[in-house]
Design goal:
The complex is a heterodimer of chains A (386) and B (372). By secondary structure, chain A is an alpha/beta fold. In chain A, a hairpin with a 3-residue loop joins strand 2 and strand 3. Chain B is an alpha/beta fold and 372 residues long. Chain B folds into two domains: 263 residues, Spore Coat Polysaccharide Biosynthesis Protein SpsA, Chain A; 84 residues, 3 Solenoid (UDP N-Acetylglucosamine Acyltransferase, domain 1), CATH 2.160.10.10. In chain B, the strands form six sheets. In chain B, strands 1, 4, 5, 6, 8, 9, 10, 11 and 12 form a nine-stranded mixed beta sheet that branches. Chain B has a five-stranded parallel beta sheet with strand order 14-17-20-23-26, with no helix packed on it. A five-stranded parallel beta sheet of chain B has the order 15-18-21-24-27, with no helix packed on it. Chain B is globular. The chains are: A alpha/beta (386), B alpha/beta (372). The interface between A and B is large, with 41 and 38 residues.
Chain lengths: 386, 372
């Protein structure tokens, strides 16, 4: 069936394991990791799409997709339950001749060409589901059109020290990309790719087909497709993004991104014309008790705070018992911290039960590390984890 | 058992002059993020009632905006769902509904065309948590014509004038029904919630049309207490009747008790649903002080909040002190202002350095969109 034509279709890469997040991603995929009191990481890319006027999104899933599938459901939380378009989950599937997992980022798009072709788009926007940022993609698409580019890559300035973690590119004064290196040991510039690409769909299709036939390719955008297009002298431009952007691929960066929400100059979630949508449980407002202390923190609905919370992010349904103290921590949904517990510098995953009277984590300091408690753990009075 | 729910949104508007001046009682904000309609509506959804008629007479814009398609209550359905029914001028029927019976007469065709066997009638000004399926089962067991839900509580004269009181015989059958009496003491107070067989309701309405009856409580309940089999179903949980500004204030403050919160919002019947707003979680500054308060999402708190309820997207400025107050959504309390025993309606702006004082038995009310 030929559906109504869409100018731009977004493809959201959400299949990665995010192994550097350790215990947080043993049961769920990285894009479903909770963030910021009531969100999951994928909410940022989905909300950016909706706020940028993009209403047709394919979400490519592979690793532990259950939470993600049921979270996205029909997309109505993001206003993506549309007659034409909307959000669609795209897992790997069997075909007549073969069947295979998504081998790389480019391969996952290649296997879903028919999904994109239904909408006959001019442009395809490739996104990853593991970054925290607010970005108007329509401005990037405008730039892509103005430059008549074949591919536009969104870039952000990073420090030279960090540069070797990213795809680093160099461009001339017109913004045209002259060089691209994935995770270089000696970076030539500090312009890091944000993993956000706009392609002319016809052009991308051609390169995906070439890449698919190359047995030596790892079928990855950064490693294979982008370098190949550059080699063939296609018109590729860098689009400079200025604003908050955080790759939350590690425990430290996830903790830091949560903390960036605090304070007056933090990353602002309550911008009226750039709402971050999410799916949330039906919970009443949060309750702070007679002896509660809440300082420099974020607290979501359904929480009950009877003790002290400082410099922390409290998700919905969390209970902090009497005389309990939570500092410098991220406490995810439905965690119970019972009376007299002390929690320092930790990330506590969903549905954990602690206490009463236990100490979790070491106070934040130069040599201390973040303590991570995996989901649904029950930590009893003996101090063991069940 | 399949039942049709009928909710009256504004039967008692007359008693709520401040909060219902520009909205129906059903649309009065309550409990930090809800509207009163959310409570009966959630009770129905949690009792597997999937078809609801919402009868509304006037001032219904904010109510209709709140309900939308009904999807936040899971009532956007192909079969059933929620239908808002404002007055409709046709033939002799025009003007606002004059009481429950008049309203029901004028939606008779909708009642007749629905296929459910039972009808559950409810108002919007009472908060309680009940599974209607249990009431329907009791209704069947007693083979009653009308089953009225009641609760046994102590009331004073100012409360009784907005209530229907029941007296029952040993079997639980009503033998006297008093409508809006002036009395005090322990009484069987009606929750203005009734269960009937749909066919029975239809016959009642044919009779009401023939005799030009308009008032359900007077013309049916009270007048026919001996000829009809009216039984009482006792409810024993949390109960609040919002029938004046004072009762609104007192019942709101009851939510600052963790047992009450638990009973209302985490009951076995199910959660209370409401319109989703996508506000970010609430942000506390390093100087925030908070005691015994209920805070919805989207607030920014830089001052002191004690014994208060903050609705969604409220801002409390630096050194501002809010005590014993209810600040409805989008209220802004600027730096250094002090509020005690105040109810601010939605979108109120209190400038810097203001001092506003009410008293616990006479909260001061500030109307919607005010600038102080």
């Amino acid at each position: 069936m030929k559906l109504a034509k869409k100018e731009c279709v977004a493809m959201l890469l959400a299949g990665g394991q995010g192994s550097r997040l350790g215990a947080l991603t043993t049961k769920i995929a990285k894009p479903s990791v909770p963030f910021g009191g009531k969100y999951r990481i994928i909410d940022f890319a989905l909300s950016n799409c909706v706020n940028s006027g993009i209403d047709t999104i394919g979400v490519l899933t592979q690793y532990q997709p259950l939470t993600l599938n049921s979270y996205i459901a029909d997309g109505k939380s993001w206003d993506l339950d549309r007659m034409y378009g909307g959000v669609q989950i795209l897992p790997p599937y069997q075909r007549v001749a073969d069947s295979e997992w998504y081998l790389g980022t480019a391969n996952s798009i290649c296997q879903n060409m028919n999904f994109i072709d239904q909408y006959a788009p001019e442009y395809v926007l490739i996104l990853s589901g593991d970054h925290i940022y607010k970005m108007d993609y329509s401005l990037m698409i405008d730039y892509h059109k103005k430059m008549d580019a074949d591919c536009t890559i969104s870039v952000i300035d990073v420090s030279l020290k960090e540069a070797s973690r990213f795809g680093i590119l160099s461009s001339d004064e017109t913004g045209r990309i002259t060089d691209f290196e994935e995770k270089p040991k000696k970076p030539k510039s500090t312009q890091a790719s944000m993993g956000i690409y706009v392609f002319k769909w016809n052009k991308l299709k051609k390169y995906l087909e070439i890449d698919d036939k190359n047995p030596d390719s790892s079928n990855d955008f950064g490693k294979d497709v982008i370098p190949l297009m550059l080699e063939k002298n296609e018109k590729m431009y860098a689009y400079k993004f200025r604003g908050y952007w955080k790759d939350v691929g590690t425990i430290d960066s996830l903790w830091q991104a949560n903390m960036d929400l605090l304070g007056e100059n933090g990353f602002e979630l309550s911008e009226e014309n750039w709402i971050i949508y999410s799916r949330h449980a039906e919970k009443p407002p949060h309750y702070a008790g007679r002896d509660a202390v809440i300082k420099n923190s974020i607290v979501s609905e359904g929480a009950v705070i009877l003790g002290t919370v400082e410099n922390s992010i409290i998700f919905s349904g969390v209970r902090v018992g009497e005389n309990a103290v939570v500092k410098d921590s991220v406490i995810m949904a439905d965690v119970e911290i019972n009376d007299n517990c002390i929690v320092n510098y930790s990330i506590i995953d969903e549905m954990v039960k602690i206490g009463p009277g236990l100490k979790i984590g070491k106070p934040m300091g130069e040599n201390s590390e973040i303590t991570v408690i995996p989901r649904e753990s029950i930590i009893n009075n003996m101090g063991g984890i069940i | 058992m399949n039942a049709l729910g009928i909710i009256f949104s504004d039967i008692q508007d007359w008693s709520m002059t401040e909060l219902a001046s520009h909205r129906s009682v059903a649309a009065i904000p309550f409990g930090g993020r809800y509207r009163l309609i959310d409570f009966p509506l959630s009770n129905m959804v949690n009792s597997s009632i999937n078809k609801v008629y919402l009868i509304t007479s006037s001032n219904y814009r904010s109510l209709m905006e709140h309900i939308g398609t009904g999807k936040d209550w899971d009532l956007s359905r192909k079969k059933g769902g929620i239908l808002t029914i404002p007055p409709y001028a046709a033939g002799e029927n025009h003007g606002l509904y004059q009481g429950r019976l008049d309203a029901l007469k004028r939606v008779l065709d909708y009642i007749t065309s629905s296929k459910e066997n039972y009808v559950v009638l409810s108002d919007s000004d009472m908060i309680y948590d009940i599974n209607y399926q249990k009431v329907i089962k009791y209704h069947e067991e007693k083979n009653s014509d009308i089953t009225a839900v009641y609760t046994k509580i102590n009331i004073n004269k100012s409360e009784s004038i907005h209530k229907i009181l029941y007296e029952f015989d040993q079997d639980g059958r009503a033998d006297d029904i008093l409508v809006y009496p002036i009395t005090n003491g322990i009484h069987n107070v009606g929750l203005n919630t009734w269960v009937m067989n749909k066919e029975f309701l239809e016959s009642l309405l044919y009779d009401a049309i023939a005799r030009n009856y308009k008032d359900f409580s007077l013309n049916v309940l009270s007048a026919k207490v001996h000829s009809l089999r009216i039984y009482g179903y006792e409810y024993t949980g949390f109960f609040a009747h919002i029938d004046s500004l004072q009762s609104y204030f007192e019942n709101s403050m009851k939510l600052l008790n963790i047992d009450n919160l638990q009973n209302i919002f985490y009951s076995k019947t199910g959660p209370i649903y409401t319109k989703t707003k996508d506000s970010a979680p609430t942000k506390y500054s390093k100087d925030a002080v908070i005691k015994n308060s209920l805070i919805a999402n989207g607030c920014v708190i830089e001052g002191t909040v004690e014994n208060s309820i903050l609705f969604r997207n409220v801002r409390i400025g630096k050194n501002a002190v809010v005590k014993n107050s209810i600040i409805m959504q989008h209220g802004i309390i600027s730096d250094n202002s002090k509020l005690d025993s105040i109810i601010t309606d939605t979108y109120t702006f209190v400038s810097k350095d203001r001092v506003l004082l009410g008293y616990s038995n006479c909260p001061f009310f500030i109307k919607k969109n005010s600038v102080v």
